[in-house]
Write a structure and sequence with these properties.
The complex is a heterodimer.
Chain A: H1 2-19, H2 25-32, H3 38-59, H4 80-96, H5 102-108, H6 114-131
Helix pairs in contact in A: 1-5, 5-6
Chain B: H1 10-26, H2 35-43, H3 61-80, H4 91-99, H5 112-115, H6 123-143, H7 147-156, H8 160-184
Helix pairs in contact in B: 7-8
The chains are: A mainly alpha, B mainly alpha.
Amino acid sequence: MRSLSYLLIGILFGITMFKSEAASWFRIYEMFKFDAFHMYGIIGTAVGLGVIIVAAIKRFKIKSFYGEPIVFEPKDKSIPRYAIGGLLFGLGWGLAGACPGPMFTLVGAGYVSILVVIVAAILGTFVYGLLRDKLPH
Amino acid sequence: MEWIYEPWPWYVSGAAIAFVMLLLLLVGKNFGMSSNLRTLCTICGADKQSEFFKFDWKSQKWNLIVVAGAIIGGFLASTFLTADAAVHINPNTVQELQGLGFESAGAAYLPTELYATESLTNWKSIGLIALGGFLVGFGARYAGGCTSGHAISGLSNLQWPSLVAVIGFFAGGMIMIYLLFPLIFS
């Protein structure tokens, strides 16, 4: 049952990524060029509603469907890892035009070559794991 | 019923993303896609190479099921909910991209110059998308999250580290497109 719920949520996510065109390389380029409001509207709406959702869950101590408390892990407080890691991610996002959610949606949409991006992203994660102790965090 | 084939407006899309995050919280999980890349490394045996990959990947199986759903969702949306996948970006952007050699701008979902299956024999195209993917994977794990984990989940929880990461995302994207694109594509 739980697995089915994860699958259905994933399907909704995949449909959303494709139909919103957030999985389109062109929309990402247009966003970085500030040529359209579209992507800013999407992220802005999601974050605006997200802030209300998270605040409401905390305020009213809403529990999960399974009766467990919903916990929010605070992010580690530091600057370098977010600034440098974020910058590298952004360089890749601008070039490949796909982030880790949409790249899977695009597999389903039939773009065979996106597999190159996915394999490279897994490799990038692996290399990060190897170098982790040598990098500033 | 024609509307069903149209792209979703930003407010529907944004609300749907917030809804996905809400549903994941309500089933006791959280919204973050890039951690799946780490899980896939572990499944491929990376735990023998680095401590970073030593964890019980089965605890992350739920997120791999979300990924499977995202793949199915992409199939359903492109097959049954889309008549014409061409993305109608700003005409000025189209013109600019055509100047950089992207003839498919305004007429496709992904640029055929980089992503057409035929481009898989073009080393420049493969090299570029592979480099992009590598940076996405490396950067996401370095920053501890991607667009979903930081820009949506993190900002929704008012985490300033996520704001630093998102500023980094945009700085990186803008450096790529304003400074490096004219050098790469010309």
